[in-house]
Amino acid sequence: MKAPGYSLVEVVVAAAIAAIGVAAGAAIVNTLVVQQEFNAGSVRASNLQEQAVMLYRLGMTNPQDLYNILPESCGASGNPGAGNFVLTFGTPTATNFTATLTNGTNSVACETVSCTVVYGNPVAGGAEVAYLTNMVNFVRPTIRVGP
């Protein structure tokens, strides 16, 4: 009678199937890591742009002052490297908005401004950089109340 066990062919086939599964799992993990890095760069750029717009709305219109106070380092021109940002503001355009209040209709002088952020995201492998751009338009009143 033959002893119970596995033949060499069965062991080799099982090992090959296991190796293919491990390789596929490693490829999926690599893809997930690259996608997570890409998304992290997009979120950082979006947060930077939102903070810059808020500061601009509050009256800080000098871009160099914005660059100095923002938590991420950014420049005013050129192509950013991987993980870096270029932040620019357009020329303000005068706009009037009319608002109806309980005591009548008032017109508020405003300006429309665009803010553009360009950021570099590493492409798979890390040698190349994909330049992505996001532009938002926002409105702020031209009349400031203060001391």
Keyphrases for this structure?
five-stranded mixed beta sheet, elongated, 2 helices, 147 residues, alpha+beta
Question: What structural class is derived from the secondary structure elements?
Answer: alpha+beta
Poorly predicted regions are none
Mean pLDDT comes to 82
Indicate the radius of gyration in whole angstroms.
27 Å
Order of helices and strands: HHEEEEE
- The number of strands is 5
Residue share in β-strands: 25-35%
What composes the largest sheet?
5 strands, mixed
**Alpha plus pi helix count:** 2
Indicate the percent of residues in helices. 25-40%
State the shape. Answer: elongated
Describe the secondary structure blueprint for this structure.
Blueprint: H1 8-57, H2 63-69, E1 74-75, E2 85-89, E3 93-101, E4 104-122, E5 129-141
Summarize the structure.
This protein has 147 residues and is of the alpha+beta class. The protein contains two helices and five strands. A hairpin with a 2-residue loop joins strand 3 (93-101) and strand 4.
Tell me about this structure.
- With 147 residues, the protein is α+β, with helices and mostly antiparallel strands.
- Strands 1, 2, 3, 4 and 5 form a five-stranded mixed β-sheet that branches.
- β3 and β4 form a beta hairpin.
- The longest helix has 50 residues.
- It is elongated.
- The model has no long low-confidence stretch (mean pLDDT 82).
